[in-house]
Give the backbone structure.
Amino acid sequence: MSAPKPLWQSFLRFLAPLMLSNALQSLFGTVSNVYVGHMIGVDALAAASIFFPVFFFLFAFVMGLSTGATVLIGQAFGAGKLDRIKIVAGATLAVGLLLSISVGLVGGLFSRQLMIALATPADILKPASRYARIMLLTMPFGFTFLLMTAMIRGVGDAVTPLLALALSTAIGLILTPMLIHGAVGITSPAWAAAISNALTLIALAAYLLRRKHVLAPDAALLRHVRINRAVIGQILGIGLPSAVGMVVMAIAELVLLGLVNGFGSHATAAYGAVNQVMGYTQFTAMSISIAVSILGAQAIGGGDRTRLDGIVRTGLAFNLVLTGGLVTLIYLAPRAVLGIFITDGAVLDLAQGLLFVALWSSVPFGLATTFSGAMRAAGVALTPMLLSISAIVAIELPSAVILSRTIGLAGVWAAYPIVFCAMFVLQIGYYLLVWRKRAIRRLV
């Protein structure tokens, strides 16, 4: 009988494809924008960008929904309750389809009014409305795809979602320039995403059925695709705080951007470049948090508190090694990294100084999200979210305003390490002093 693998190896086997999956999701959006900007024009890129706030709000909700479902599925999988997995998955898909179809119909009919409400410039109102209409009408494909891949990870399978995302990305990247050349225009990325999601869902369903996967869309799962109020209440109880937290962070970023814009266009350009770089380090930290949440939920389902503690320690170690290692590498060659996004020498000098101020804060950010991910695995999401929001509202925003007026642009960036260190202290404090002293019970 072979000895069980060390926990860090199991963690890494799950984390690696998860990080690659998130990278592929970012890749499609980035390359699509490049296609639109270069093959159609700047106005087309601006028209597509107008839809981003709407997309982010809907994305935040579906991510919250998937977070709640993944925790419950992880616990059910750890407990060996396969029927319960289908019940949770069915209820999640029912809510996702109901919401996305409603959004698609209403948004499709009133896309122009929506773009007017977002203060879209008159010269790009028509293409922006067309883009928004297709994005909203095809939302059911995107929602279903995101929910299915997230729920599959809940049973410890991170490879299948990676393969699905690879297929979807490949189809989308091939279709987008073909549709642009075919005179589809600004709606090309939206149609490409919809078609790639639909085709990948068909391939994914066939794959899951052939493997007799617990989340295969068989008759047993389809019977549970209905509104189950008790299960939906549990899902939203975990997922909604996560969604609200994402929205609050996005609003805070808009406030900070407003402060940065006051220092001129060079400051705005530097902000964009530094945020791009920090996005990669934070993306690593958030992937580790998701892994802690899913693997932790499985440990809770199996009633193994010792393994849960080990998962938290492993997540902290991976944050120090991976997130900290990436931060160190960027500090060793900051101009080379920033030069990928900007070429102007003055802006590059400014961005480098700001990067030195803020980049290291991705490490305490990652440590904080590890603790919140562990608590989320047990279904405790509201308090960690309130702690994070309190730090943003009471510490980050006032710090940015005060420091920007006293020490200038660097003061805005100093708010990042201040708030991320505060989040770390708050999350670890609540985790050690309150949450860890309570009994942990399965929710399924």
Notes: The chain has a mean pLDDT of 88. The chain has 18 helices and no strands.
